[in-house]
Write a structure and sequence with these properties.
Blueprint lengths: L1 H11 L1 E6 L5 H17 L3 E2 L4 E14 L7 E11 L2 E11 L2 H9 L7 H10 L1
Parallel strand pairs: 1-2, 1-3
Antiparallel strand pairs: 3-4, 4-5
Helix pairs in contact: 2-3
Length: 124
């Protein structure tokens, strides 16, 4: 009984990141780092057998500047969801192309921001 209870508690304290398929690979790498830091600060960890923490993104605005040095500006709503806990982070990034703008946008997700701490509290 004690073994089963500790196993359930361990699984409840660990999460497995599940990303939406259309998030660029470079952005996923940054998100993995940022989300791991966020979870660790809340006393959680990442594990392959943990509860799923789903990460979805929607580009709400895309503007390409004209000219020879054109850049792409993106506004992305990034939603992290685990069970009943959910939080949407609005991120902005400007880069030399879509993938660069994505990467710069997800770097704006700060593990110790108010919204990140709020999400971690919801997980508890």
């Amino acid at each position: 009984m004690v073994c089963l209870l500790s196993s359930l508690m361990l699984q409840a304290q660990s999460y497995k990141l599940v990303f939406q398929e259309d998030i660029p690979a470079a952005a996923v790498e940054v998100l993995q780092q940022r989300l791991a830091q966020m979870l660790k600060a809340g006393g959680f960890s990442l594990a392959d057998d943990g509860a799923p923490l789903e990460v979805a993104a929607k580009v709400t605005s895309r503007v390409e500047t004209p000219g020879s040095m054109s850049q792409v500006a993106l506004v992305i709503d990034l939603t992290a969801r685990a069970g009943e806990a959910s939080e949407t982070f609005t991120l902005r990034g400007v880069g030399e192309g879509d993938e660069d703008a994505w990467t710069r946008a997800v770097k704006q997700l700060l593990p110790k921001s108010k919204s990140a701490l709020n999400f971690v509290e919801k997980l508890k």
